[in-house]
Design a protein that fits this description.
441 residues; alpha+beta; Beta-Lactamase; Helix Hairpins; 7-stranded mixed sheet; 5-stranded antiparallel sheet; 12 strands; rod-shaped
């Protein structure tokens, strides 16, 4: 506004000076056409009724005509040493702040003897009045602009601080353990991204909280069941009237439940070690065919006993970098699932293929399949498709979670595809190792 104010005033003063010079040029033209005393008086009379004054002098400085009484301010300008003045005229005094007049001069030549200058004067008090009026307009415009700016800033600050306050309240709730918060996303800028990030964090923490509670409840259930069996049958075996065969049968049940409890604790211990990165992996490059063939021979009797055909499809020139004992645990776990959930006279296949430097190992069964709503959660801890947790299917819902962690620790990925009553396919993918790699290793 200050810059604009200065530019407007400067422009207005220049306009006044150009106007004075134009009036002086107009009087010059009249004098050059018809120079006479009546013409001089006519020019003086014209300027007498305007807010400007004219003084016409000859080349010696004698005043020929004046529209007003020549005062000290005018004499100061008339006494200036004038250099050669261009025909279009020139500005003699432009400082309106320090002088009483602004002035211009224009030369005229009617004939050789009738020469002189036309001086035009404008009182700076008139200019100051004009500037004061401009100042009032600018002050009003500035006040109006500031008012609109304050109103705009108020609403903008409200618009900016409202989501920030909402996010602050949400983070306060999160810090107190309340993860069921909703942060509205009202924009797609940085604030919107921040709100979305906080909402994602809240959703993830809420999910982890629910998962932890479900985990603790599931562990309590899994521990309570074998302990209940052990305690119940231990109480029965203490009876003195129990015959030897019944006592032996009950002791077998106690032993089986103890083994079951021991397996659960082992799986929990392994999972805890993987979570804190203390699970040791000893990788080496192995020939995949011989590795899978050994597993195939190991589990073939169990599949044959259930009248399930077990096939192996693998070329003998595939090598992968794995921990053999840990990876055997992965394959055995997947095969155990295929055995549990497949019917008689179906086929389970261990299939290894290579494509673009990647090796895929698939366990394909023709079992009951997994419902579509359960597939995304199949690798979650303690998640079981059978919500009743029937004991005849075995397992604790930890096997596939451990399988996924074991595969990822060794640098691989695992995925699952399944259709109800058609079967399930677990696929593990690793980067292929060449025969040269195995030799150098």
């Amino acid at each position: 506004m200050i810059y604009l104010h200065n530019k407007v005033i400067h422009s207005r003063i220049n306009q006044e000076l150009e106007s004075l010079k134009a009036r002086g040029n107009s009087h010059r033209d009249v004098l050059e056409i018809t120079y006479s005393d009546s013409t001089l008086k006519h020019i003086g009379l014209m300027e007498y009724h305007t807010d400007t004054d004219v003084v016409i002098t000859n080349t010696r400085g004698d005043i020929l005509i004046s529209s007003a009484k020549v005062n000290g301010g005018m004499n100061k300008i008339l006494a200036k040493n004038i250099p050669q003045v261009p025909r279009k005229g020139m500005v003699l005094q432009s400082s309106w702040k320090d002088e009483r007049y602004i002035a211009t001069v224009t030369p005229f030549i009617s004939d050789k003897e009738k020469k002189g200058y036309v001086y035009m004067f404008k009182d700076t008090r008139d200019v100051e009045d004009l500037i004061a009026q401009l100042n009032r307009h600018f002050l009003f415009a500035t006040a109006l602009l500031l008012l609109f700016m304050l109103i705009t800033i108020y609403f903008l600050s409200k618009a900016l601080t409202r989501p920030l306050i909402s996010m602050k309240e949400a983070t306060t709730k999160l810090s107190k353990g309340n993860f069921s918060v909703a942060v509205p996303v009202r924009s797609h800028d940085e604030l919107g991204e921040l709100a979305q990030s906080i909402q994602s964090l809240a959703n993830e923490l809420n999910y982890l909280k629910k998962e932890r509670n479900e985990f603790l409840a599931s562990i309590s259930h899994e521990l309570r069941t074998p302990l209940t069996y052990i305690k119940g049958y231990a109480d029965i075996t203490r009876r003195k009237d129990l015959d030897a065969s019944e006592r032996t049968r009950y002791l077998e049940i106690i032993h089986d439940e103890s083994e079951r409890l021991n397996r659960l604790l082992d799986e929990l211990f392994n999972m805890a070690r993987m979570d804190v990165n203390t699970f040791t992996i000893s990788k080496e490059i192995v020939q995949l065919f011989s590795f899978l063939q050994n597993i195939h021979e190991k589990v073939l009797p169990a599949f044959a006993n259930e009248r399930i055909q077990l096939n192996l499809e693998c070329k003998d020139d595939l090598f992968i970098d794995i921990d053999p004992s840990r990876f055997e645990q992965v394959i055995l776990n997947l095969l155990d699932n295929a055995l549990k959930y497949s019917n008689e006279y179906t086929v389970t296949t261990i299939k290894a293929t290579e494509c673009n430097g990647w090796i895929s190992i698939s366990i394909i069964d023709q079992g009951v399949g997994i419902p579509p709503e359960d597939v995304p959660h199949i690798f979650d801890r303690l998640y079981r498709v059978e919500k009743s947790r029937a004991r005849d299917t075995g397992g604790f819902g930890l096997g596939l979670s451990i399988v996924k962690q074991l595969v990822e620790i060794q640098g691989g990925t695992i995925s699952v595809k399944s259709n109800l009553e058609q079967g399930t396919c677990f696929t593990i993918t690793f980067k292929e190792k060449t025969n040269e790699d195995s030799s150098s290793g």
